[in-house]
Automatic annotation (TrEMBL):
Free-text function comment from the UniProt entry: Catalyzes the rate-limiting step of the oxidative pentose-phosphate pathway, which represents a route for the dissimilation of carbohydrates besides glycolysis.
Organism: Absidia glauca
Residues in Glucose-6-phosphate dehydrogenase C-terminal domain copies: 193-474
Assigned GO CC terms: cytosol
Metabolic or biological pathway, per its Swiss-Prot or TrEMBL entry: Carbohydrate degradation; pentose phosphate pathway; D-ribulose 5-phosphate from D-glucose 6-phosphate (oxidative stage): step 1/3
EC number annotated for this UniProt entry: 1.1.1.49
Protein name: Glucose-6-phosphate 1-dehydrogenase
GO biological process, alphabetically ordered: glucose metabolic process; pentose-phosphate shunt, oxidative branch
Lineage, broadest ranks: Eukaryota, Fungi, Fungi incertae sedis, Mucoromycota, Mucoromycotina
Length: 481
């Protein structure tokens, strides 16, 4: 826990991420009295903005229905400073502004905590970290410095290793909070309690009973002006190597010995280390084309001509351990698809015997978004004058079950964790290393061999090859719940 308040320094404050996610999350924490009153929020970026223009941007994404008094109270905590990312002078100025604000708020030694939040492009990332390190060195000894880092954490094993190596002397693992915002999502946070606090489900969570696991992320929009960034990374690095793999590690890990951050992350790393590097035969990639109404990926002016970048991918991961031997974990993600949906679909083995020939398999579905739900598909006697079972669902729809509950945004929950000093939902350095080891060889192969992605139309389910691809791994398309 932080003693006293904290100064949040948000680097990249004029960027999309800060405006759409970081500031609104800080606002909700403030509104719910979870931000210590003596906190201060300092936006820092290169753009020349005056204070009012900055506040206007901050308020823009906070929500129209919030009351003015709360918004005013929050914006009073915010200030903006424009400066360079690689210039000592700018950072000296930043230090002065922070110190002045600490004095004005009457912060004593031990209360001058600083949280450096880097919502920055990779090109300036290390420069800022070095400058923050100097600020941290010069700051009050009894107070804490924490650094929050947003992805991308490199592009492959090598670049990630390099980044980690350069950052290590600047901030310790204990001071570092690497955000994968999926770890702050309500349903993702529910995977551990679901698995480890129910005697009902634990015994079947293995290859004896489970046939396949699919983790799917669909987005109904394309790159829309973000093509410059996206093209350098592609869908696998953008969401699969991090968000979907994090979900997979929670689904597949063993029971940790405790609920502290290290115990949990130890188990996640352990299972990731059992995942074999992905082979090309277990991969399907796609790229969206225009549908008459919406432009194709290559029509985006920020995308280089003739790019082979994948905007869709399905990859099958195999875990080489006793629990999961032979069970395919199928990760699928795509932009410009037919709908917005993130879900985990655990498909069980066929019902043995022929007593009720032709009954459906069981399935557990955890929908992360939109509209959080867990449902278990099971067979039940068709009510009425028949004996035959029909497939139905035990359904826990959050909106219906937990009325009036406001599910916190992922960033809200994660920033609160940073304040509390809880690393459980942040990515440890060895997790990153293990994650890149799984994806790097196949990503390099795809790039070296210039493998062409399969085209799919904007607004569809993805490449038409997908259905056959998943069938190869024994997945049955059961009726949608
Ligand atoms: C980000 C990716 O990490 O996650 C984006 O860079 C993606 O491309 C986003 O759209 C999805 O996040 P969410 O919370 O909207 O599902």
């Amino acid at each position: 826990q932080l003693n006293g308040g904290a100064t949040f320094v948000i680097f990249g404050a004029s960027g999309d991420l800060a405006r759409k996610k970081t500031f609104p999350a800080l606002f909700r924490l403030y509104k719910n009295n979870l931000l210590p009153k003596s906190s201060s929020i300092l936006g820092y970026a290169r753009s020349h903005l005056d204070h009012d223009a900055f506040l206007e941007r901050v308020v823009e994404h906070i929500g129209k229905d919030e009351d003015k008094k709360t918004i005013d109270g929050f914006t009073k905590l915010c200030t903006y400073l424009s400066g360079q990312y690689d210039e000592d002078e700018s950072f000296k100025k930043l230090d002065q502004v922070i110190s002045k604000s600490e004095d004005e708020r009457g912060m004593k030694s031990g209360q001058k905590n600083r949280i450096f939040y880097m919502a920055l492009p990779p090109s300036v990332f290390l420069d800022v970290a070095k400058e923050c390190h100097k600020l941290a060195l010069a700051s009050d000894e009894k107070s804490v410095n924490r650094v929050v880092i947003e992805k991308p954490f490199g592009k492959d094993s090598e670049s990630c290793g390099e980044l980690l190596k350069n950052l290590r002397p600047l901030f310790s693992e204990n001071e570092t909070y690497r955000i994968d915002h999926y770890l702050g999502k309500e349903m993702v946070k529910n995977i551990m309690p679901y698995r480890f606090s129910n005697t009902l489900f634990s015994p079947v969570w293995n290859s004896t009973h489970i046939d396949s696991v699919q983790i799917t992320m669909k987005e109904p929009f394309g790159t829309e002006g973000r093509g410059g960034y996206f093209d350098e990374y592609g869908i696998v690095r953008d969401v699969m190597q991090n968000h979907l793999l994090q979900i997979m590690s929670l689904i597949a890990m063993e029971r940790p010995i405790g609920r502290d951050a290290e115990a949990i992350r130890d188990e996640k790393v352990k299972v990731l280390r059992c995942v074999k590097p992905i082979e090309l035969k277990d991969v399907l990639i796609g790229q969206y084309v225009g549908n008459g109404e919406n432009p194709g990926y290559l029509d985006d002016k920020t995308v280089p001509k003739g790019s082979l970048c994948a905007t869709y991918a399905a990859m099958v991961l195999w875990i080489d351990n006793e629990r999961w031997d032979g069970v395919p974990f199928i990760l699928k993600a795509g932009k410009a698809l037919d709908k917005a949906k993130v879900e985990v679909r655990v498909q069980y083995k066929k019902v043995p015997g022929s007593l009720y020939g032709g009954v459906s398999r069981n399935e557990t579905v955890m929908r992360v978004q939109p509209n959080e739900v867990i449902y278990n598909k099971f067979n039940n006697k068709t009510p009425g004058l028949t004996e035959h079972p029909m497939v139905t669902e035990m359904n826990l729809t959050y909106k219906e079950r937990f009325k009036n509950l406001q599910i916190p945004d992922a960033y809200e929950s994660l920033i609160l964790d940073v304040m509390r000093g809880d690393h459980s939902n942040f990515v440890r350095d060895d997790e990153l290393d293990a994650a890149w080891r799984i994806f790097t060889p196949v990503l390099h192969k795809i790039e070296q061999d210039r493998i062409k992605p399969e085209p799919y139309k904007y607004g569809t389910r993805g490449p038409e090859q997908e259905a056959r691809f998943v069938q190869r791994y024994g997945v049955e398309q059961l009726t949608e719940g």
